[in-house]
Write a structure and sequence with these properties.
The chain is mainly β and 173 residues long. It is built from two helices and seven strands, in the order E-E-E-E-E-E-E-H-H. It has helices at 113-124, 163-172; strands at residues 2-4, 14-19, 33-47, 50-64, 71-85, 103-105, 110-112. The longest helix has 12 residues, at 113-124.
Amino acid sequence: MNIVVAQISEDEGLNIHHLYPEGEPSLGGGADHQVGQCELTVRATRSGDKVQLVGSVRVRVTFECDRCLAPLALPVNESFDLVYVPPLGTGEERELGEHDLSLGFYQDGIIDLDDLVREQIELALPMARLCTEACRGLCPTCGANLNLNNCGCTDKVVDERWAALKGIKSKLN
């Protein structure tokens, strides 16, 4: 979904309430995906080429635990207040100031709201996606979920290259 900057009235602004079809916008890559519908509410105001977007994104995202691969669902309800401007346009390299880091850029007079929604969802998700902080993960030998039960595999891995040294230690003691 796109906003054409020229269609945003400088006096009245523009209100958007959009309910995406199930599974859209796609988060792309990885195993993360959305469940249900994503709801976007935006109030766009414009002053010349500068556009301010204030709103929220609501969706339920499912993913797998990074350690045990158990399915999880997390509600996302993110608010945002963003400023968009056209590209700086000089073609020259320049150092970005602190103010520039809070800006978004639009091309050809169009702001892509799908990108904004994806960004807000990704920023809301935890870096480590775990079912619990104490998740024990999967056994590296048999693949059993260690949160459900112990698998009986030995934790001790013997590197055969060092087997000759084991006999030396016992002779010295």
